[in-house]
Amino acid sequence: MDIAYIPSPSTGVIHLGPIPLRGYAFCIIIGVFVAVWLGNRRWIARGGKPGTVADIAVWAVPFGLVGGRLYHVITDYQLYFGEGRNWVDAFKIWEGGLGIWGAIALGAVGAWIGCRLRGIPLPAWADALAPGIALAQACGRWGNWFNQELYGRATDLPWAVEITAGPNRDAGTYHPTFLYESLWCVGVAFLVIWADRRFKLGHGRAFALYVAAYCVGRGWIEYMRVDEAHHILGVRLNVWTSIGVFVLAVVYFVLSAKLRPGRETVVEPDREGSGGKDGEDAAPADAAPADANADADAEAKPSDADAEAKPKPAKAGAPVLTKDAPAEAEAPEAGKR
Length: 337
Prior knowledge:
Enzyme class: transferase
Subcellular location: Cell membrane
Membrane topology: Multi-pass membrane protein
Oligomer: single chain
Mean pLDDT: 82
Number of strands: 6
Keywords: Cell membrane, Membrane, Transferase, Transmembrane, Transmembrane helix
Main location: membrane
Low-confidence stretches: 273-301, 303-310, 314-337
């Protein structure tokens, strides 16, 4: 009796004339756009400027792709080096093989460079981008479906994925671990968004929550995979990596909450002010006219000294003194009584 299953694409590439469109690359590109779009909305909501997330992503994405590929090649070097292997295949990123740990690590270096150039704190930018990164991973995992990779043990569940025969794989139906991880990443994204709104996470804690939550899911999903991998004490290398990164993320979350509670009040300083320091506001445009008006009023209004110097009007019947009047008119003669 036939069982239900998720069919795999017969090919992972579609040719438009001489131009190949690869499903793996297409999924990664969609993920990048989703991450930048959501990150931009969250950055603006925190008081940042539109376009800043995309500007920094120009640095973070290339670094992340290189880091992800390096991690994969280093941890699975037997696929590219040794007898019967071609080391040139290590550069064929379109055939699959990106390690999320290397992508996050080296992508953070690129993001740090971009943040330094813009004068903004890296933790605040990472907090804004955290749920978007999780959604980007959810999209990117479907690239593994196109390449028929990252599946688990054989199963006859209705949602099993069909794998066709090929190099290093047998035909059959298997646990779609790529689908499990994709759904888990969507859940992580919503968890971070909810927690950030509920507890006002700041100073990198939203990003730390994303890392910790992802590691929990990656740990149990990794146990289901059957592809070739290095083992330490009988446990897959990526499981150990998940445990280590989870511990680091939790430690950072706790220490950050104690040392720097609350959320940043300013995430992107204003560099357009006329002051000498970032974030100083320029003088109001109407300040100069107001001062000019005040000076004009001061000139028009006589001072107290001028008021005293101005002669008072004479009383009726009193002699009017003029500049040419004789001195006798100013005072009676000494002999007269």
